[in-house]
Amino acid sequence: QRQQLLKIKEEYDIGILGPNTVMGVINTANGLNTTFERDVMPRKGNIAVISQSGGVGACLLDWACFYKIGISKFAFMGDKIDVDDVDMLRYLGRDKETKVICLYMEGVKNGRKFIEEARKTVEKKPIIALKGGIVQESAHRAKSHTASMAGSNEVFEAALKKAGIIRVENMEDLMNAALALSKQPPMLGDNVAIVSNVGGPAILAADAVARNNLKLARLSGETKGAIERLYPGVDATNPIDMIADARADRYRKVLDLVLTDNNVDGVLVINMLKSCFFEPEDAKAILEVAAKHPDKPIVDVPAGGEDFELVYKVIGESSIPLYNLPEKGVKALKILRLYGKIIGNIKV
Questions:
Q1: In CATH, which of 3.40.50.720, 3.10.20.340, 1.20.210.10, 3.40.50.261 is domain 2-183?
Q2: pLDDT tens digits for 64-118?
């Protein structure tokens, strides 16, 4: 089959995507959908997904549709007998509708060219990669699955680092990272402030900050003093627990003071509804403050299930990425920090 396809390519001078993939391509800008899922079209957005596996790609497509994540392009690569990762990076690097590139890979054909093209691309937009076949048993399966030579995981890790590609461990992390990078600026330092209306989740978030090699920001005396003068019952030590009666006005004022602080590089906001005074509409205050500080990333955590859904209905399609657990929000800030380091190294 491969030889026949290559003959057709040579005879008609056309590009071939695949074979050995049950899917094809999706372009949300013009409505093109060559997959078997003819009635499926994700929301228009700026995240591109390249998947070597049709099954993994189908899962990511379903994820994007269910959570209403904005997609620019989807491409299912299969065996890559012609069009390969280098071609796709070159195309998506120039694509005005794409801001973030997601990769699911089981192997790379031409590692040197891939690294060179990726390094050019990450100067303009981030690349996130999920690698399949990292243990011997799954690597053997990858070879039979999409004719991929998976290679050493350590070599692959080194290649990704050299290329400036951010690596994640699972499909959820891939989409969560893409969401953060598509909506927020890179984080240019390690210092995170946590602003919450509950204590326990803020403590869990602080633990996650340490585990992810970030730092809790030390707020200036001026910032702490201003917050405590406004709200005498609030201890403005980071993580800041604004207590359960915090509404939009308190979030607005505290967030503005925290983001103005030069010791803060990014902010994790927690806003729970149950057993608190906070209402879903209060979340709009986060958008107002974020607009005043466009160079510092903010992620929001309306923790839980129902609370998350209620807040998502209000600001889910805004420029603020939402996560349902503090640990996921911290991971998002870590991704933004990693990209901040990558572009910092490129500029040097």
A1: 3.40.50.261
A2: 999 999 999 998 887 776 678 888 899 999 999 999 999 999 888 778 899 999 9
Please, what's the b/e burial string for 281-305 (b: 16 or more CB within 10 A of its CB; e: otherwise)? ebbebbeebbeebeebbbbbbbbbe
Alpha-carbon distances, residue 139 vs 80, 110, 131, 170, 287 (angstroms): 17, 18, 10, 16, 45
- The answer for residues whose C-beta is within 8 angstroms of residue 155's C-beta and 6 or more apart is none
Rounded Cα distance between 335 and 10, Å, is 42
CATH code for 191-347?
A: 3.40.50.261
308 close to 324: Cβ distance less than 8 angstroms:
yes
Distance CA 58, CA 341 (A): 32
Q: Locate tokens 């690349």: which residue?
A: 127
Q: How far is CA 125 from the centre of its chain?
A: 12
